[in-house]
Fold this protein.
Amino acid sequence: MKHRAFSRLAVPAAAALIALTTGCTGSTVHGRPGASGLRDPYFPKAGNGGYQVEHYDLDLDYDPADGELNATAVITARAEQGLSSFNLDFSGLRVEEVTVQGAAARYNRSGRELTVRPAEDLEKGEVFRTEVDYRGKPQPLTDPDRSKEGWITTDDGAVGVGEPVGSMAWFPGNHHPSDKATYDITLTVPKGYEAVSNGELASRTDTAEGRTRFSWHSPQPMASYLAVAAVGKFKVTTGRTPSGVALYDAVVPGEAAKSAPALARLPEMVEWGSGRFGPYPFGTAGAIVFPEGSLTYALETQTKPVFSGAPDEKLVLHELAHQWFGDSVSPKSWKDMWLNEGFATYAEWLWSEDRGGTTAQQYFDAFLAGDTDVDPEAASDWAAFPPAAPPGPEEISEAPVYYRGAMVLQRIRQEVGDEKFFALLRGWAADHRYGNASTADFTAYADQKTGRDLKKVWDVWLYGEGRPTARATS
Ligand code: ARG
Ligand code: ZN
């Protein structure tokens, strides 16, 4: 603990009054409250201002029998301004204690915001440690598009997932993709259960209380919406790709046989992606498969995507492609979702093309023509809005973000040719590796990297209203 001339709490009443009116505490540190949201165009209250998280250390003890979670989150962050208070995004559950730099902190909750008031103001640049002890039965959250995220109970366990803002249902944090951090996630569950999270399994120990403790370590930065906690009676298989990426698949027994063909191709897919997009960004890959109907979607949780029921090859490839596009290169805001979904969809087309199947150009033509023989999704309303401008938060996972997003990439390829196009994909993944990027970053990068002015493609395909009709620049 640091020592300062005045502690904020020790200032006499009169001085405190002056401090209030002058905005000065009298201590050597002048803090002000951090913002309660990052003004994301679709989720303005997501994330918080005034600090950036460096590391999350989550210790979650979960009992599937009664759904009770008993947890501690230790958040190491750097103050970006003097802070008299700061917010964490957190939903539900009971907060039992909060400390900052080891000293008890005052806090209050309002909706999904947990405001923490440290005993002493934090200095700009200071790295500080916040510990939150909390417990209760975590709940699902409903997305603007009515799908469920947050904490979902399954047939024989539970899963914590968070795209776009569900992670606040199971741990407090700076829940916006622009604040990436490293993670240690420890899950303690009754013996007989498996517990799976992102990254590598650092240890697995049986406790004296008849429980098993799984410690998972993510050394590369991760956006909080990509964190996963999975509890179930999984069948676990491990392995390694030819180039040495560790594999960890956790599959519920009921889905194991049906999942096997697609999951068997994961090593080949990792190698293929490394050739097309540059080195696989993480040390581990794999999959978590829950019973069908557990979730209404699959999710690209970092290093280990989650599937609801046995995935087919295309879906495994899609979530793997997100590891480059979405997980390593993450969106700056939720408006940039097409940088995730358009790219992952394009990867499906490319995988097919590289295996002698339908080419990306044939997919592109099929969507233009609405040819459902090539892809049933060609009948979707893929032109309903421009991919870089979904009308609202309930639309960020809709068809145009995926399919018209992928068509944008094919349009670039048509303009610049294969050599420049694939150099662009690799360069993009390399340039923003482990970081964040926006649509404007992408268009500027593409123009510069290909040496072409692609403005017409952006105007018509990325930002334009209405249904583009031709493959030329109209
Ligand atoms: N990112 C996921 C995927 O494409 C889909 C998430 C859908 N979420 C939702 N709220 N609709 O793999
Ligand atoms: Zn996706």
Summary: Confidence is low (pLDDT under 50) at residues 1-26. The chain is about 25% helix and 30% strand. Residues 292 and 309 are 4 Å apart (CA to CA). The first strand starts at residue 32 and ends at 33.
